[in-house]
Amino acid sequence: MVLTGCTVPRRRLGVREGALTAYSLDHVAIVVPSWGVGGRFLEGVLGGRWTGGTAMPEMSPGQLAFGNDTRVELLEPGTAPESFVTKFLDRSGGRSRPHHITFKVADIERSIDAVRRAGFEAILTRLDNEYWKETFIHPRATGLGFLTQLAQTGRSSGPDGPRPAPWPEPADAPAVPADLRFIVSHVRDLDPGRRVLTEVLGAVEEKCEAPAGWQARRFFWPAGADLILATADELPNGPGIQALGIRPPASFDMPVTPVGRGYAVTAPVPELGLALLVPAD
Q: How many helices and strands (H and E) does the chain possess?
């Protein structure tokens, strides 16, 4: 795990003129054996608020909302016996693991054109639902280490309000949810991912201080979480999403190890398949 000097507050910017941009890094999706596996942790420890879920053949997605208009999506196996979530879990030995990051875009068709002009392929495109239009870019093309989803939604992305979760309510859940501030992903090469994030999704990029042997960049949008990409000759855990950077609730009480400037890291959380980065005391 590398934490760079990308953790200083920075000004939120509007959409860049002339750029075909996303306006928000909306959520990170994690494949889990069941909603309750990740949900109990996200609610009980981080104060996430369940906003609902649905059962579908290929996957059953459900979401929890956090304090700065960001979400974590949990993908449990779908109703079909051979759903892609089931296969994904089989490859990970049944363990929870991050799957994709979703960026909200204003015009999905223009975004698809931008994907193609940048030399990437849009896959799994679905435009037939007026309330949710989507496409994906495969991680083998972007080098980001995760599947990239672009989505145009015809409804508000914010939750209608907390709903009863499909697991027993924790007795001591935080009253105020954590903020999901940034996501850290390790990559083999910064350049392909930078092209997607800046040329297609219109991110603002800043260079980060990094330990010897590492390079890192931070990318951000007008709303939602930021994304930090870091690379080195040797990636201890391989490429992919490594950690969520959060401002935890006051009740947060997990063992942490100091890293970088002003931050500490937990051990990987089995329920999520990634670690948490929190401000150091």
A: 5, 17
Taking CA atoms, 158 is separated from 13, 32, 162, in Å, by 20, 23, 11
What's the Rg (C-alpha) of the chain? 18
Q: Is the separation of the CB atoms in 165 and 53 below 8 Å? A: no
pLDDT of residue 17: 44
Q: How much is the average pLDDT of 157-167?
A: 68
Residue 13 lies in a domain: no
Work out the pLDDT band at 5, boundaries 50, 70, 90: low
Indicate if 147 and 26 belong to the same structural domain: yes
Residue 58 lies in a domain: yes
Structural domain that includes position 131: 22-153
Range in 9-18, 34-43, 109-118 with the lowest mean pLDDT: 9-18
Q: Annotate 69-98 with DSSP letters as a single string.
A: S-EEEEEEE-SSTT-HHHHHHHHTTT--EE
- Which has the higher per-residue pLDDT, 16 or 151? 151
Cβ atoms of 271 and 41 within 8 Å: the answer is yes
Instruction: Indicate which CATH number applies to the domain containing 99.
Output: 3.10.180.10
Identify whether the C-beta of residue 129 lies closer than 8 Å to the C-beta of residue 153.
no
CA angle in degrees (0–180, nearest 5) for 260-265-267: 145
Please say whether the beta carbons of 116 and 122 come within 8 A.
yes
Q: Please give the model's pTM, rounded to 2 decimal places.
A: 0.92
